[in-house]
Amino acid sequence: MSDTLNSPAFSALSAPAELGNDYPGDLADASAGRIKRRLGVYGGLNNYGVNHVTLPVGCQSALRHWHTRQDEFVMVLSGELILLTNSGEQTLGAGDCAAFPAGRADGHALVNRSATEATYLEIGDRTAGDEVDYPDVDMAVRWIDGKEFFVRRSDGSIIKKVG
């Protein structure tokens, strides 16, 4: 890592760190310690996102979820993470990757059950109208009147606005 980078180059750690998530209520607890750096936004990208994510010991990336329109890809940079999917659990280490095609109803999340923090890259496109389903809880992200909301999957009632 160089101390003297000039645009368009930059250190991943120079991007602002965002702690936690935007989930409603107690659903935010499992990933409250997640540190996300939005590298794509920081670098001025508009068509896809690239995030550098740090998961402390015991932290989860997100609630298990899948996207209706957005492809998502992760690559573990350091440490060890457990990938949760419909098929069960598997361990990912540095250099291991996972791809999640849009529209495939296979909820996924990463959990750090190791003794040290772990980092990974998360890459996804920014397809308009993407919605998200959370198969383990009664929640989804839906567009209502041009705005994103967390809603109950069971009846569509609004829980809270996203963001």
N- to C-terminal distance: 32 Å
Give the averaged pLDDT, no decimals: 95
What is the helix content? Answer: under 10%
Helix-and-strand structural type: mainly beta
CATH superfamily membership: Jelly Rolls
Q: So how many helices?
A: 1
Report the sheet with the most strands, covering strand number, pairing sense and barrel closure: 6 strands, antiparallel
Per CATH, the class reads: Mainly Beta
Structural features, described:
The structure is a single chain. By secondary structure, the protein is mainly beta. It has a single domain, classed as Jelly Rolls (Sandwich). A six-stranded antiparallel beta sheet has the order 1-2-3-10-5-8. A five-stranded antiparallel beta sheet has the order 4-11-12-13-14, with no helix packed on it. A three-stranded antiparallel beta sheet has the order 7-6-9, with no helix packed on it. A hairpin with a 2-residue loop joins strand 12 and strand 13. It is globular and about 55 Å long.
Write the layout of secondary structure elements.
Elements: E1 17-19, E2 35-38, H1 39-42, E3 48-55, E4 66-67, E5 72-78, E6 80-85, E7 88-93, E8 97-100, E9 109-111, E10 118-125, E11 132-134, E12 139-144, E13 147-151, E14 158-161
Antiparallel strand pairs: 1-2, 2-3, 3-10, 4-11, 5-8, 5-10, 6-7, 6-9, 11-12, 12-13, 13-14
